[in-house]
Amino acid sequence: MAAPPAVRRQTASSRPPTRRLRCRLAGAHILEHTPVTRVELGASAHKLHTARGSVTAKNIVLAGSAYMPRLAGARRVSRAVLPVMTYACVTEPLGDRLHHVMRAPHAVTDSRFACDYYRPLSDGRILWGGRIDCLGIEPSRLADKLHADMCVVYPQLADVRVDVAWPGVMGYARHKMPLLGKLPDVPGVWYATGFGGHGVCPTTVAGELIAAAIAGTEVCVRVRVHVRVCVRVCVRAVLACSCCVPAPPPPSVMPLCVQRATSVTSCSSRSGY
Ligand SMILES: Cc1cc2nc3c(=O)[nH]c(=O)nc-3n(C[C@H](O)[C@H](O)[C@H](O)COP(=O)(O)OP(=O)(O)OC[C@H]3O[C@@H](n4cnc5c(N)ncnc54)[C@H](O)[C@@H]3O)c2cc1C
Question: Which pLDDT score, from 0 to 100, does residue 104 have?
Answer without folding.
Answer: 87
